[in-house]
Design a protein that fits this description.
With 733 residues, this protein is of the alpha+beta class. It has 13 helices and 23 strands. Helices cover 38% and strands 21% of the residues. Strand 10 and strand 11 form a beta hairpin.
């Protein structure tokens, strides 16, 4: 019994010890769980709070919309690398971007230590710009606080090092337009329009001369008034003196004569003072007119600078799209100068389009501002297409935003002949300079206009007049002669012809073309024009205007390029397919061994002697360039109908989707056409300098052949605005 009692006591002690141990274990687990929950909550709070942008070096975005500027920040963590590029199946960059000019492994940024930040251009070195300067592949560039970094054609960032300066100050000092203009200036796109030091010095000199003339006019007016007042006082004093003397010596008759003499002298002085005043006013008006003209020129120059800064990024973006898709087009800007009816120079901005290196047509800047939206939409559809070759070859010409009818009949230049000698019945004969659309001499035109008698002979002496106004009401016969042209440009000296518009003509008078290639064609043209009767308006036309002669030629290179385009529609698709294969092959090598993107750039395939190219050669050339006919593409579904809130007029391009509006920075406003069925063809301008494109051309509205696939489109647009899965530290404020 005692043994049993002892065993039970031991058993109770063991149970109590086990319960105590279990109670201790339970308390430890609850404590550890509480500590783990507190640590997780602290970590989540730190993660929600995000990096401290007032301490960490980072990139901040600059957007065309000021509301979106500074909303995207990318931390440049010390001893870490950030890859920038386009997301692909085998690579996810830390800073994902998309669009034109963005490559998979575009560039890499590293924060070495102590705010030493470097950037290295990789595949996208040609489309990476630091403060406007292009980077070089595999070469590091040290970034400083406030540096402007541009990737592709749409993305701009500022480098922010908080220990040196604040992000807010940098954003206040820079905007999207100024950063893109800096790139254009550094890359040479704006050099043709910026004023040289000599031009600035000349403008300053003109301003000083204007100020001096104004002072001279004021001084002349003051002196004229003072001299008139002094002369008037002197005469009045002399008259009073004579009157006193006459009152003493002379009778009433002599006094009357003296009063008449004084009145005559007073009238003469008043006339002289009035003449001096009119001359001063005339000179003042001339100076004011000169100032007004200079002000208008400054306003036009400023407007041209703004337009050029707006168009250059669009030209670059269009060229990137053409290069990415393998389309053989290249766009560039050109300035067209012509003279207004008031004899003043006016400069317009045009976009020159080349096909396989041959200039084929010109666009007004508003055409590009419209079609860039269509180009972007076509590029997105092409990027989403499974068979890119089939996509390119299935686009009809009328739906291709790069396509327009080839303008082979080209305006070489204009020559002017002043008509004032004709009002004095003197021959107007000149070797007039031909001026191109850029205002440069491009040849000489021998022309003459001679007054003749009604039978075509010389005017008899008794019919000659001394004053041009004596011609009013009479008959005047003029013999227009166009002898020949000389030193015409080689590329356009084909089937050369001349036309001119005389006085009130509704249509230009055309001179028959000299067929074939000839840089010095002889026209031997003459025509008698009769004005019966001579009116004041016609006499004013002779005294103040000039007759403009327009010389046209055929660009054989453009003709051959157009024929090649129509005969080999699949050429661009084969080039693109070859380019894609070359890119895939290059991805198997190291970056240093890759072939540069521009190594395979297209070169002109048309010889520079168009006169030697005949129809047989053209047919053989087209056969060699054309590919075997591919299987007929399946008809694509019609594009989705536009929402009810968006106009569906053919003259207004489709509005980008909401996703595109959020992810793609907006470009220049769309300029719609008045008649989409009218192609953009050259028009004859009354100016003395050629205009190779209409000033307000019709803009055909086009849409790509296939509607975009919504799912793929959203996937392709993972860029800086959307953050991306691979971002290390990105917050949207």
């Amino acid at each position: 019994e005692a043994e049993r009692m002892r065993i039970e006591e031991d058993h109770k002690k063991e149970i109590a010890a086990m319960e105590k141990a279990l109670e201790g274990m339970q308390k430890g687990w609850e404590q550890r769980l509480k500590e783990a929950e507190e640590a997780a909550a602290k970590q989540a709070a730190e993660k929600a709070k995000g990096p401290d942008w007032k301490k960490i070096p980072h990139l901040t975005n600059i957007n065309e919309d000021e509301v979106l500027t500074g909303k995207l920040n990318y931390a440049l963590t010390e001893n870490a690398e950030i890859w920038i590029g386009k997301k692909s199946s085998d690579f996810t960059p830390d800073l994902p971007l998309s669009g034109i000019g963005i490559h998979s492994r575009h560039a890499v940024i590293a924060n070495r230590a102590a705010n030493i930040i470097v950037i290295k251009g990789m595949e996208g070195a040609d489309y990476t710009f630091i403060n406007g300067d292009k980077t070089m592949q595999n070469r590091e560039v040290t970034l400083q606080h406030g540096d402007r970094v541009v990737f592709g054609s749409q993305y701009a960032f500022l480098v922010v090092i908080p220990s040196i300066g604040s992000q807010g100050d940098l954003i206040q000092a820079h905007d999207f337009e100024s950063i893109m203009k800096e790139v254009a200036e550094k890359q040479g796109d704006l050099k043709s329009i910026l004023k040289s030091p000599e031009e600035l010095a000349a403008e300053k000199k003109r301003h000083e001369e204007y100020e001096a003339k104004m002072k001279e006019v004021e001084e002349l007016k003051r002196k004229a008034e003072e001299e008139a007042q002094a002369a008037l006082r002197a005469k009045e004093e002399e008259f009073q003196k004579k009157m006193k003397e006459m009152e003493e010596r002379l009778n009433q008759e002599e006094k009357r004569k003296a009063e008449e003499e004084f009145k005559k002298q007073q009238e003469l002085i008043a006339k002289e003072a009035e003449r001096a005043r009119q001359e001063a006013e005339k000179k003042e008006k001339e100076v004011q007119e000169q100032k007004r003209v200079e002000h208008e020129q400054q306003v036009e120059q400023s407007a041209l600078d703004e337009k050029l800064a707006r168009i250059l990024p669009l030209v670059k973006e269009a060229n990137m799209i053409a290069q990415e898709m393998g389309k053989p087009y290249h766009l560039s800007t050109k300035l067209q100068v012509h003279i207004t009816h008031k004899r003043r120079k006016k400069t317009e901005l045009l976009v020159s389009v080349s096909l396989e290196g041959n200039h084929v047509y010109d666009w007004h800047s508003s055409i590009l501002e419209n079609r860039i939206f269509l180009m972007r939409e076509m590029f997105e559809n092409w990027a989403d297409a499974d068979d890119k070759f089939e996509f390119l070859t299935s686009i009809p010409d009328e739906e291709d935003p790069f396509w327009d009818p080839v303008q082979s009949d080209r305006l070489i230049g204009k020559a002017e002949l002043f008509l004032k000698p004709l009002s004095y019945q003197i021959d107007a004969d000149a070797q007039a300079k031909l001026l191109s659309s850029e205002g440069k001499q491009c040849g000489i035109l021998h022309v003459a206009i001679e007054p003749v008698s009604p039978d075509g002979g010389p005017i008899a002496d008794e019919d000659l007049v001394e004053n041009p106004t004596d011609l009013i009401g009479t008959r005047m016969d003029l013999l227009v002669k166009i002898h020949k042209a000389e030193k015409l440009p080689e590329a356009l000296a084909n089937d050369v012809r001349v036309q001119y518009t005389y006085f009130l003509d509704d249509e230009p008078r055309k001179v028959p073309a000299v067929e074939g290639h000839n840089r010095s064609p002889a026209f031997n043209y003459s025509e008698v024009i009769t004005q019966d009767p001579v009116t004041e308006k016609f006499l004013d036309y002779l005294n103040n205007d000039a007759l403009s002669f327009e010389v046209y030629g055929v660009d054989k290179g453009a003709e051959i390029a157009g024929a090649m385009r129509s005969q080999a529609p699949s050429a661009q698709g084969s080039r693109q397919a070859s380019r894609q294969a070359s890119r895939q092959a290059s991805m198997q090598h190291t970056p240093a061994a890759r072939t540069p993107r521009n190594a395979g750039a297209m070169t002109p395939m048309i010889e520079e002697k168009p006169e030697e190219v005949d129809a047989d050669y053209l047919a053989d050339f087209g056969n060699r360039m054309a590919k075997p006919p591919a299987a007929k593409a399946k008809p694509k579904p019609a594009p989705a109908p536009a929402p009810a809130s968006i106009p569906t007029s053919p003259s207004v391009p489709a509005k980008p989707t909401a996703a595109a509006e959020q992810l793609v920075p907006p470009a220049a406003p769309v300029v719609s056409a008045s008649d989409p069925s009218t192609p953009a063809v050259p028009q004859v301008s009354p100016s003395p300098v050629p205009s190779q494109s209409p000033s307000e051309p019709a803009i055909p509205t086009k849409k790509p052949a296939a509607a975009p696939k919504p799912a793929a489109k959203g996937k392709a647009k993972q860029d800086a605005n959307a953050g991306g899965k691979g971002s290390k530290a990105c917050t949207i404020q």
